Amino acid sequence: MSSEDRAIGVIRRVFNARSVALVGASQEPKKYGFMTLNSIIRGGFQGEIYPVNPRGGEILGRKVYPSVGAIPGRPDLVIIIVPVNLVAGVLREAGQMGVPAALIATGGFRESGRLDLESELLCISREYGIRIIGPNIAGINYLPNKLCAMFFPVITTFGPIGIISQSGTITNGLSEWAAYEGIGISAAINLGNQIDLCESDFLDFLSQDDPTRVIAMYLDGVKDGRRFMGSLARATARKPVVILKGGRTHAGQRSASSHTSSMAVDYRVFSAACIQSGAVLAEDLETLFDCSKALAMIRPPKGKRVLTVSTSGGANTAAMDEAEKQDLAVPPLGEEFLSNLKNLNLSPLAALSNPLDLVSLSAEEFRKVFLLADKLDAADLFLINYGDPVEGASEAAEEIRDKVGAGVAVSYFAGGEEEKQGRIKIQAAGIPVFPTPERAIRGLASVCRAATYREGLSKRGGVITMDSQRFSPSGNVDRTFLTEPEGIQYLESYGIPYPPHGMAATRADAVEVAEKIGYPVVLKIVSPEILHKTEIGGVLKGLTSAQEVGAGFDLLISRARSTSSRARIQGVLVCRQLEEGPEAIIGSVEDAVFGPLIMFGLGGIFAEIFNDVAIRVLPIHQSDAEEMIQEIKGYPLLRGARGGAQVKIENLVQMLMSVSRLVEEKREIKELDLNPVHLSERCISALDVRIILGRR
Amino acid sequence: MSSEDRAIGVIRRVFNARSVALVGASQEPKKYGFMTLNSIIRGGFQGEIYPVNPRGGEILGRKVYPSVGAIPGRPDLVIIIVPVNLVAGVLREAGQMGVPAALIATGGFRESGRLDLESELLCISREYGIRIIGPNIAGINYLPNKLCAMFFPVITTFGPIGIISQSGTITNGLSEWAAYEGIGISAAINLGNQIDLCESDFLDFLSQDDPTRVIAMYLDGVKDGRRFMGSLARATARKPVVILKGGRTHAGQRSASSHTSSMAVDYRVFSAACIQSGAVLAEDLETLFDCSKALAMIRPPKGKRVLTVSTSGGANTAAMDEAEKQDLAVPPLGEEFLSNLKNLNLSPLAALSNPLDLVSLSAEEFRKVFLLADKLDAADLFLINYGDPVEGASEAAEEIRDKVGAGVAVSYFAGGEEEKQGRIKIQAAGIPVFPTPERAIRGLASVCRAATYREGLSKRGGVITMDSQRFSPSGNVDRTFLTEPEGIQYLESYGIPYPPHGMAATRADAVEVAEKIGYPVVLKIVSPEILHKTEIGGVLKGLTSAQEVGAGFDLLISRARSTSSRARIQGVLVCRQLEEGPEAIIGSVEDAVFGPLIMFGLGGIFAEIFNDVAIRVLPIHQSDAEEMIQEIKGYPLLRGARGGAQVKIENLVQMLMSVSRLVEEKREIKELDLNPVHLSERCISALDVRIILGRR
To answer: Which CATH superfamily is domain A299-459 in?
Structure first.
C-alpha cells in the first residue's frame, strides 16, 4: 500500500470515527474547548464523545475524563485543544493507546517561530504511527458522519461541496454561504500547519469521497508541488476542483507567508500547475464559491456557446459583457430558430437575438424559448436571466433544466420579494442561482473551463508529472555551468537546431572554420569560467572576412585574459550568423515548489517589459506546447502580422518538446536558456545556449 | 437662463410635484397602469393623484377621471401608460393644459424601429413646451417627495444614493440592494429612450440635489459626449459619481444597441472621458453598488495607504491580493507603531504587521489598534477586516469611525449569526460593510480614485471641455486630406519638430535640397491625390548621394504617374533621414460621440498587437499628457529600459500638448497621424504627418 493510500485510509477512518476524545474540553463557553464540544454535540454526532480535562466533572451533560488514558476503549480520533506546551504529552499518550490520528487545534508552532515544537510532534507521530491533522486549525466538519469537530460554525446542511482550506475563516465563510443558500457541504477541512497530513492527502480523500461532487480549495501554497499535481490530476479526473490561491500578488504573498509560512511561489507557475492538472482557478472568495456552486450542479457542457434569455435588456447586456471577458461564445440565433420563435407569440417588442429580450414577465415564455433552443441545439449553456420579478420562475427553471441537454444557470436580479423566495426554491431544485448576470456567467465559464482542462488532461494521457523522487540529487556536479560548445552538444543530441559552427583554438583555426561555414560569422569566447560572455565583450558579431575573423579572435582572447588572468580559455566558437529576424526566448528554471518549468516568449522587450510569456510545469505534452505558443499576446507576430515572419509553428512546437525532454532527462540541468531563438520562415534555431548545473 | 438650467428647473418642479396624473390607470393588478398607481400610493406620495381612464370609476379607492382635460386643476406631472398609438394624443392634451412634463412609460418607439413616433412626440413637446421623460421607461422614484412613479419596486428607504440608469431592471436592482441593506436611495431614475430630457439633464439635477450624496449611473451610451463631460465634471466637483457602462465588449455592445439603440463607443474612449471628468468606473453591477456605498459613506482620503486588521490571516491575505490589484498602498508598520503595539497586550500569536492579524475575536483589540494607528497617522484608509464572529463588532466599528481621521470600511465575512446582525447595525451607523475583504477593498479603492480624479480635475482648472457648439461645421472643406508639405506647415506653426526638408519639383531641385540638408535623405512623392504614399512605393529611404537622389526622384515620379495618370504630382519632398531609433505614434481622430481624441503609443507592434495606447478626449492639460506617457506599459522603454533611449519626457509632453492645441484650433482637421514619431535622447520629431480634413 502506498503512503498516499495509507493516508486516505486513516482520513477515512478518522472522518468516519465512531468515537472521539476532546482533550482540553472546557466549562467556559468562550473557550475553544467548550465551543468544539458544543459543535460536536450540536452537529449531531452519533458516536461516543469523551471530553477530557484533569478537573473531571461534567460539561454540556457529558462525563469528563481526567486523561486520555482514563477513557474506556480507544477513540478513533483525539482532538487536542490544550496549551501548546502540553500538546506533545497528549499526543504521546494517544499514540501509546494506538489512536490512529490526532486533530491538533492548538496554535503557537511554526507561525510563532516554534518549528522545534513541530519536530517534536512529528517524532511522536513516527514513533507511534499516529497521524496528525494540524496543528493550528479550526477543525474539520464531515457531514456524512455528522462530525463537526470545529469551534464554529455548526453547519449541518449536507450538500455536494467539499472544502479544503488553509484558512479557518475561509473554511467557515464558504460553509456558511453554502448553508445559507441551502446548497450545503459534504466536508469542511481546515489545513493549518499541515506538519503531517497535507492538502494532497485530503484532496486524495475527497476525490474518492462519493458525497463530495466538487472540491473547493483555498491554498496559500502547497508543500510538495509534484505530489499536489498528481493528487489534483487524479481528483479532477473524477470531479471538478476549484482553487483560490492566497498570495497571488506581492502584498498577498507577504500576508500569506506570515499567516501560514507558505513558501512563495510565482502565481503564474501555480496557475500553470493547476490548469495542467485539470483544476479551475478563482480570483476571489465570491468567485470560488460561485464556481463551486456551478460545478456542483451543472454537468460538463460539450462546448462554450451560451444563450441568454431575459426580461431585461440591461441584465442581458451585463451578461454579454462578462461572457466576452470570460471567453464564452455567444452565437447568433440560426434561421430555423428565428422562424420557430415567430410562432411562439412572444411580445412584439421582444428582441429576437442572442441575447434574447422577451420584454415580458412571464416564466412561460422562458420555458417555450429554451425548449425550442434545446430542440435546435442552439447552445451548450443556457442562462435563464431573470431581471425583475417573474411569476412561476422556479417551476419554469426546473422544467427547463429537466428537459434540456445544455447546462442551465439562473441569474435572478431585481426580482424583489418574488426573487427572494424563487432563489431558494430554484437552488433547492439543484439549479445554481446567482444574484447578478455577471456572477452567473462566471459560474458558467468555470464549467466550460473545467471541461476543457479535463479534456486536455485526458488528451495528455492523464497525469504527466515527474515522480517527485526523480528530483533528488542525481550525483555530484562539480561545475556550475556548461560552456557553449558543451551546451550545443546537448541541443544536438535532442535535435534542437543551432547554426553551423566550429571551435577554434588558434587564430588560424578560427579563419579556417569561418571559411568553411561561410560569412558573416559570430565569434564567442569559450571558457569554463566565463558565463556572461556579452558582459565582458566576449561576443563579436557581423564578421565578414578572414581578416576580420583573425583580428576578432585576437581581440576576444586578449579581452578574456584581461578580465580574468586565471580563466582557462578554451578558444573561440565560430558560428554562422543568421539574417536579422524576430527572436524568441525558451527557458527552463527549477521552481522550489514545482520543480522544472518551461517558459516561452518573444524576444527581450516582449518578455521583460510586457511580461508576455507562457509557463508550464515540465514535462509538457505536444498540446501544451501548442497552447503555450498560442497564448502569448504576441502570437499574431508569428503568424505574419505587421510584416512579421510566417513562422513554422510545428517546428517551434518540436523545439519546445525537445527542450522538455532534454531537461527531463538530463538531471544535472538546473537552468537552461535559449536566448535568443532565431525565428524566420525558413528556419528556427537557437542562437545561444546557457546551461546552469545543479543538484536536483 | 441656459437650456441646462431650464431642464434642471423642470426636473426639480416635476420631481417635487404636488399633483400627478396617471393616464392609463387600470383596474387589472398585472397591468403597469395599476402597478404604477399602486406604487405611487404605497410610496406615500402626499400630493394629489389623478388616475385617468375613459372608463372612469375608481381604482385603489381613487376617483378615476375620463381624460386629462377632466382633471380639476393642472397637474405638475402627467404619467402616460397608454398604448403607443395613443401617446401623442395624451401628450398634446397635457401640453395644451400647460403641464410642465410628461413621463412616458409606454414602449414601442425607436426600440421597435418607430423613430417617426418619437419625432411626433418631440414636435408636440416643442409646440407646447412640455418636457418628456422617456419614453420606454419603468419610471422614476424621488424619495424626498415620496414620489414612486414606477411599476415596481416600491422603495421607501431614504438614503444617500441617487441612481440614473438606462436599464429599468438595473434601476430596480440597485434600489432593492440599497433598501435591503438599510442604506437607501435619494432617487432612482430610469432613462429609457431619452428623446428630450437625457442623462446629462438628470445628472445636472442630482448634482444640485442635496439629499443625493453619491450618483450611481448605468449607461449603455450617451447622447452628446461633450455635454455629458461638462455635466459630469460639474457633478464630480460636488459629489462622487460612479458609472457602469453597458456594452464594454463587442458582445455587450451588440446587446446594448438592440436594447437602447445606443451609439457604439469604444470603451477606452468612454473611460477616458469619464475619468477626465472626475468619475469613477465600475466593471460590474456588484462593484457599481459597492463603490456607490463606499463613496456615499467615506470622506475623500488624503492618500491611498490602507491598514487592514483582522482576526483572520485568510481574510487579510484576500484583502492584500485585492489591494495590490487595485493599486492601493500597503505601508509596513513604523517602528513607533510597533513599539506602541507591544504595550497593547495583544495575543502573543498576533502577527504585528500590515496586514495585522490579531488572532483574537475581541472587538476591543480592533478598537485599540485602530485608535493607535490614527494617532500615528499610519494610513489613510482603515479596513476593519472582521473574519469569524466578533462580539461588539458594531460598537467598535462605530467608535473607530467616529474617532479617526482615516476613511473606514468594514468587511464582515464568516461571522455567522453575529455577522448578520452586526452587518445591519454597522451600516445603519453609516459605515459601509462588505461581505468579503475583496469587495471592501474595491470600495476603498474607488474612494481613492474619486479623490485622485477630482484633484486632477481641479488641477486642470475645472472642466476643460470644448463647447459642443464648436463642433459645428467650420466652413466648406473641398479637399479630403492635406499633402505632407501642407501638414508640415501646420506642425511648424505649432512648434512640432520635423526633420530638415525641402520640396523639389525637378530632379535638379531634389539633388540641390539633399546636398543642402545633408545625407542620408528620404524622398516622398507629393500629390493631392495620393494619401497612402507607401502603398504605391511613393517613399524611398536611405539615399546617400546625389546620384541616388536623382535616380530616386525619377523613380517616384514615374511610379506616381503609372499609378494614376490623372494624379496632379506636385513634386517630391526631400527630408533628412534621422538615425534608427525607437518610434512612437501620436494621433487624433474624431469620435462620433465625444469629438476629437488624442492617442499616444509606442511604434506599430506595441500599439497594434499589444494594444498599448493611451487615449484622452481633447483638449488635454499638461497633467493629462504626462499621465498618458506614463500609463502605457512600454513606458520603461522611454526611460532607458533594455538599452532604450532616455527620451526627454518633457519634450514628448510638449508635443502632445501642441497636437492638442493644433487639433483644437484648426477646426478643419478630422484626423491627424504622426506615425512614426522619432524618439531619441537628442531629439523628438515627427517623421510623417497625415491630416484628413472634414467638417466638424
So the answer is: Succinyl-CoA synthetase domains (3.40.50.261)
